[in-house]
Design brief:
The complex is a heterodimer of chains A (277) and B (272).
Chain A (H helix, E strand, L loop, with lengths): L9 H36 L10 H10 L1 H35 L1 H16 L2 H11 L2 H25 L4 H9 L4 H42 L5 H10 L3 H30 L12
Helix pairs in contact in A: 2-10, 3-4, 3-6, 3-8, 3-9, 5-6, 5-8, 6-8, 8-9, 8-10, 9-10
Chain B lengths: L17 E11 L5 E11 L3 E5 L6 H9 L6 E6 L12 E4 L11 H11 L4 H14 L15 H13 L5 E5 L7 H18 L2 E6 L2 H7 L2 E5 L6 E6 L8 H4 L2 H19 L5
Parallel strand pairs in B: 3-7, 3-8, 5-6, 6-7
Antiparallel strand pairs in B: 1-2, 1-4, 8-9
Helix pairs in contact in B: 2-3, 2-4, 3-4, 6-8
Classes of the chains: A mainly alpha (277), B alpha/beta (272).
């Protein structure tokens, strides 16, 4: 029988897999390089002035030259994002826990959480700026955008407890707190972490939206404010530099949260396990 | 959910010596489907009883009623419990159809769960967990995670967890149904050895004629919806049973007898 089996192309499939992995890393970098080069060429060949479209080199030069101003703004925006994210995490998980303990509370409040979510935050921001001190308004904006995914994911997670495990806890006379701590929260953890990953990026968006709304009203020093301000002054290279920083900040936030999620779940959850398992 | 009605009147001659006693128990679901009964069921202390029936006949429901995981619509469920203990729950160990382990924590912590929930002292809990793991032969896997184990090993963990409180009654809901035959035979033998050593009352739900005859002292055959007891067949084969019994003519004959008793429950009501 064994002589009939064709030789397994094990080595071939292994090289295929590693080639795929390299391609996955390399291809986006190649696209970036080609895109940047094309951009630079278009700007140079057409003699486009920097106040219309700066080339990538000009943007990088501005980033270095304006670093003292831009880094200060980056710090401000990141701080706002962090505060909004923490508020979203605490608010989202807290509300979900309350909803889980009391159906009445859930029925009463959940529709308003949805309304808060579906109303565009850019339309709420100017109102918030009227009634709240500016810094608070910005954080509230970041919170409004960020808390809903945490709330809905945590709710989903708390309701996804294995029925038999729940029966087991009941059989052994677990208290409400024990069930929450030892069963519901660990069951919900992958969902919560997924919600946090979305909330991280959304908090940044919320902060930026609020800064732009606030920026037009006057004081402010975040990155979004820098973009608005540079626009009025036709300092286009600085607009691009600030935008670049915002993108990088978003990528880093997402990456950090994905890493945390992986580290927490790697021993047991399907999402964090390698394919060979 | 209602707790199993506890038995304070162990002197009642009708139920003395019984570990489990169901009298006129019925279960009607919210949608009006009569799942069970009326059911009369007695299991003696130390007996190994098998509940056998086609899927959907309500045998799992009966087990959940005994465990107190569901309340009967009518009738009474009596469980014996140790003198001085008010909660009957700790005298029950339950093994589900699936291993039902917490994937986020180690084997050790999974087995420890009933003791953690009862707030048992740490030193005592450690000793009991080690003992239970040793009984099912998994001592060296204490720090593994459930996903690192095979199906049979997960079931052993589940069994260790049920044993860790040293319950009087072990309720098992088709625990080996999802395993391959070789693993199932091994676990059958291990379970019989545990039962002989520990002298527990076992109520074992299964849909396998062969498994019910091999394991139990009495096969209780249930009919289809609504689940009732169709026949009771004592299995008085000698102990200890092993592979010799599994291949004996006596075993084959008993299996035939049980199959015959099971046949009406496939034809009658369910065909409508």
């Amino acid at each position: 029988m064994s002589s009939l089996t064709p030789p397994t192309p094990a080595s071939a499939s292994v090289t295929d897999a590693s080639a795929l992995r390299v391609a996955r890393l390399l291809l986006p970098i190649v696209v970036l390089a080609v895109g940047t080069l094309g951009w630079e060429l278009v700007v140079r060949l057409n003699n486009i002035p920097p106040y219309v479209l700066p080339g990538p080199l000009a943007v990088l030069r501005t980033l270095v030259a304006d670093w003292p101003v831009l880094s200060q703004s980056l710090l401000t925006t990141l701080l706002t994002t962090l505060e909004g994210f923490i508020a979203a995490t605490v608010g989202g998980i807290g509300l979900a826990l309350l909803f889980n303990q009391s159906k009445w509370l859930e029925y009463s409040l959940f529709p308003y959480a949805v309304i808060l979510q579906v109303t565009p935050v850019i339309a709420i921001a100017p109102l918030l700026l009227i009634y709240l001190p500016q810094q608070t308004a910005v954080i509230v904006c970041a919170w409004i955008v960020g808390f809903f995914p945490v709330l809905s994911n945590t709710t989903l997670g708390l309701n996804s407890v294995d029925r038999n495990l729940a029966g087991l806890f009941q059989l052994y006379g677990a208290s409400r707190m024990q069930t929450l701590r030892l069963l519901k929260l660990p069951s919900a953890l992958p969902y919560i972490l997924g919600g946090l990953r979305i909330a991280g990026g959304l908090s940044l968006i919320g902060a930026v939206v609020a800064e732009i709304a606030a920026g037009t009203a006057g004081a402010g020093s975040g990155l979004a404010y820098r973009i608005a301000e540079s626009g009025y002054r036709l300092n286009i290279p600085r607009m691009f530099a600030a935008l670049l920083l915002l993108s990088v900040a978003g990528i880093v936030i997402y990456g950090l949260l994905a890493l945390v999620s992986h580290l927490v779940l790697r021993r047991w959850h399907e999402s964090a396990l390698g394919k060979e398992n | 959910m209602a707790e199993p009605a506890s038995l304070s009147d162990t002197d009642d001659p009708a139920i003395a010596g019984l570990a489990v006693s169901l009298r006129g128990v019925t279960k009607v679901y919210d949608n009006g489907v009569v799942a069970l009964g009326p059911l009369e069921l007695s299991v003696r202390k130390g007996e190994f009883a098998a509940l056998l029936g086609p899927s959907g006949c309500g045998k799992s429901t009966a087990l959940r009623l005994i465990a107190g995981l569901a309340a009967p619509t009518s009738g009474t469920v009596h469980l014996s419990h140790r003198r001085g203990e008010t909660r009957p729950a700790r005298t029950i160990g339950f093994v589900f159809q699936e291993p039902t382990l917490m994937p986020w924590t180690s084997v050790k912590e999974n087995v420890r769960l009933p003791l953690t929930l009862a707030r048992a002292p740490a030193a005592e809990a450690d000793a009991r967990v080690n003992e239970a793991l040793a009984r099912v032969g998994l001592s060296e896997f204490a720090d593994s995670y459930p996903r690192e184990l095979s199906g049979g090993m997960k079931m052993r963990v589940s069994l260790a967890r049920a044993l860790v409180t040293d319950p009087d009654i072990l309720l098992m809901d088709e625990p080996f149904a999802a395993l391959d035959e070789i693993t199932r035979f091994r676990l059958n033998n291990d379970l019989l050895a545990l039962w002989r050593n520990l002298k527990k009352t076992v109520v074992f739900v299964t849909h396998s004629v062969f498994e019910s005859v091999y394991l139990s002292q009495r096969v209780i055959v249930m009919t289809s919806r609504p689940g009732r007891i169709g026949a009771e067949i004592p299995i008085d084969a000698p102990e200890p049973r092993g592979e010799d019994f599994r291949t004996s003519a006596e075993y084959a004959q008993l299996c035939r007898k049980v199959s015959a008793a099971l046949a009406p429950s496939y034809s009658g009501r369910s065909a409508l």
